[in-house]
Each structure stands twice: as C-alpha cells, then as structure tokens.
Write the structure tokens for this entry.
Amino acid sequence: MSDHSLSEYLNTALEVAQIAGEVVKDAFYKDKDQKTKESYADIVTETDQAVEKLIISLLQEKYPSHKFIGEESTAEGKKVEWTDTPTWIIDPIDGTANFVHNIPQTCVCIGLSVNREIVVGVVHLPITGQTYSASRGGGAYCNKQKITVSKVKDLKKSVVITEAGNSRDSQILSTKMKNVHRVVEASHGVRMLGSAAVNMCMVASGSGEAYFEYGIHIWDIAAAGIIFTEAGGLLIDPSGRDVDLLSRQVLAACNQSIADQLIPLLTHVEFDRD
Ligand code: IPD
Ligand code: CA
C-alpha cells in the first residue's frame, strides 16, 4: 500500500473520530440510558450503538468495498470475520463504564487492518481533547506531539496498568486479583484507568511502563495497538508469544526487559476467542 493511501486512511479516521467524538461529548453531560450485555458490569448505552452506526456509515460511504468489525454490531449478533480485505475495527466508546459514571477517560477507537495487519489507528478522547494516532512506519502522536514509551528497564521502578474487566465470574476475578497482587509486590504499583485503549495510549506516551489484560476484544486494542508499537512499545501475548488480536489477551510493555520480568508473574485467564 502506498504512503499516499495510508495518509488518506489516517486522515479519514481522524475526521470520523472527531465527528463521533462530538456525539460522545454531547451525550457525556446528559443523563444516560444503560443496558447490560454479558454481565451487569458490561454496559452499553444508546450512544455506543448510535456512534458505531454513525462511524460505519461515514466510512462505508467513502470505502464501499471495505469490511467492518464493531463492538456493538458484534453484540447484536454479527460474527467477527477478520479477513485480508481492508477492515475497519471500531469501538465507538471504549471505557463505557467511565462514560456512564462521568469519568473523562473514555474514547472513540478506529483502526484499519489490511491483510490482517493494523496499518492505521486513532484513539480520540473527546472529553480531555487528546487524539492519539499512528500509521504504519509513521510514528505515533498525541495531537501534534510525537510520543514514545518509557525507557525504564527495571520492573521495581515501574508502574503497570491493568483492568479487572467486565466479567464478574468469581474464579476469573480471583485469578486476576492474584496477578495484581504479584505485580504490586514487584513494582511501584498498579493502576486501572477503565479503558483498554486509554491504558495503551498512556503507556505509549511514557505514562507507566506496561499494560496487560485478559478478556479484552479486538476492537479494544486494534487502534491503540499500532499507536503503541509506533511509539516504540512491544505488543505481545502475555505468554511471551506473538500478539494475536483475537485471543482476548495482551501485554503491552515499554521494552523486552519489562516484559521478561512481568510474564512469570502472570497466571493465564481463559476466555473464548473473538
Ligand atoms: C472495556 C474497557 C475496560 C476493559 C474491558 C473492555 P468497553 O471496553 O476497555 O477497561 O477492562 O476489558 O471490554 O466495554 O468499555 O468498550
Ligand atoms: Ca465499547
């Protein structure tokens, strides 16, 4: 793919994320309806659904042959089919619980894959006004500022971000909390910011040294994933293997040394693949 089309795709993603962000921002300050999906902590609002439809219609108008994977279309029964065809991977609101509880760390995520490789990513936080973006080979940015990961190599001098996630299964939570315990013991501490994409963009810009999570989906990490790697980060599976965006688990570390110290502390949590 030419650099020309990459920059065109990036600009389109930026424009569409901006339009979608205005809808999220408008709704943020109003009363919100909420329904639940797989657990009472897995929330969807009318805004999530409306924004996903809006993003897809804007992109479809411009690129009629492209495919789409979206969180809310999947929740409504559409299967995740990730092929070599250019595919826009969308989370209309990542951090829906933050959105519902008026916590500003909530974002619109738009990623584009070609041949099942993410080539463009935009993570836009309409409330804080931060727009993270990247395209393959072009570096990562927050607004117009280039971003890079932390240079810290010692886990004992690191902050690690994770999430409890949306499952309320007691066994899953117990394993996750034991992971948190071991990481807290080995580091400066653990943070949970409420959005997988925000977590990855924070680490991409040098705020904290790593993020890991079991239970995320491809739309939570596709756009933020290329932002993370273009910022110089290492995006892998928490076992140390290559990342698999459909596998529901991820480790984003600022470097190999931090990854090597974290991996032995993590007990695997099993989720069905996307
Ligand atoms: C969730 C958030 C949350 C993470 C979950 C995600 P949503 O996405 O990113 O931080 O822990 O795994 O599903 O539901 O807000 O789009
Ligand atoms: Ca979402």
Summary: The mean pLDDT is 96.
